Amino acid sequence: MKFLLPTFTLGITLLLGACQTLSGLESPEVSVSRIQLSSISLFEQQWDLTLRASNPNDRELTLKSLDYEIYLNDEKFARGLTDKSVTLPAMGDALVTTHITTSLLGSLQKLQSLQKNPGQPLQYRLEGKARVAGVPIPLSFDKQGEIALPSLPMP
């Protein structure tokens, strides 16, 4: 019983500290800045995806990682992960370059059906979680927008 009270007090103190860290903190906004096909092999495609991460807070944030899924015209295109830390200035933004991999046949078929109107932008949705230094839980983001895809070779 003697040790229970200090342990309980420590737990409450840590919990209140975590809540104070989150109070008033807005999630970073993440959008697609650019997508570029970087390589094609017999079985898969490598894409370079540049994301713009914006910090709506009045203090700088250090992004430790992003875990996201990108949808094109409401169809899942790929999942991506980052592991490089990026510091977002207060009320500022930074570019984060990531790489995604898709299967060649599946993604070419999807993209050909998506690009029935060449030159027209595609609707995208980017949803995921950002891990921020000093914040105990991941912060969610969900962004919709338009993007034009590069021309793809026909199989």
What can you tell me about this protein's structure?
InterPro entries: LEA_2, WHy-dom. By secondary structure, this protein is α+β, with helices and mostly antiparallel strands. The protein has one domain: Immunoglobulin-like (Sandwich). It is 19% helix and 49% strand. The protein contains two helices and eight strands. The chain has helices at 4-22, 104-114; strands spanning 29-40, 44-54, 61-72, 75-81, 86-88, 93-103, 122-132, 139-147. A hairpin with a 2-residue loop joins strand 3 and strand 4 (75-81). 17% of the residues are buried. The model is unreliable at 16-21 (pLDDT under 50).
Annotation field: number of helices = 2
How big a fraction of the residues is strand?
A: over 45%
Shape: elongated
| Total domain count | 1
In round numbers, the mean pLDDT is: 81
- Strands, count: 8
CATH architecture: Sandwich
Top CATH class: Mainly Beta
Q: How big is the Rg?
A: 20 Å
CATH topology: Immunoglobulin-like
Q: What is the makeup of the main sheet?
A: 5 strands, antiparallel
Uncertain spans, ≥5 residues at pLDDT below 50? 16-21
- Helical content stands at 10-25%
Class of secondary structure makeup:
alpha+beta
Helix and strand element order: HEEEEEEHEE
Distance between the termini: 72 Å
How would you concisely characterize the structure shown here?
With 155 residues, this protein is α+β, with helices and mostly antiparallel strands. It has a single domain (26-147), classed as Immunoglobulin-like (Sandwich), CATH 2.60.40.
